[in-house]
Structure prediction request, 56 residues.
Amino acid sequence: MNRIHVYENNRSELASGVDGFLLLWTQLRYYRQLAKILERSPLLKKGVYLFRKVPA
Prediction:
């Protein structure tokens, strides 16, 4: 399994991958600011997505 899957409480939507991390980070105290930055910058979000695709 190489993707994270997250359900949002208010909506019955499933978010996966980078969107799942963003959804999770919006709920965590110290990661909220990072999530806001990534949500506002499509280019940065795409970079995180591409970085996530690179195998370890």
Q: What stands out?
A: The chain has a mean pLDDT of 81. Residues 18 and 49 are 6 Å apart (CA to CA). The first strand starts at residue 5 and ends at 7. Strands lie at 5-7, 14-16.
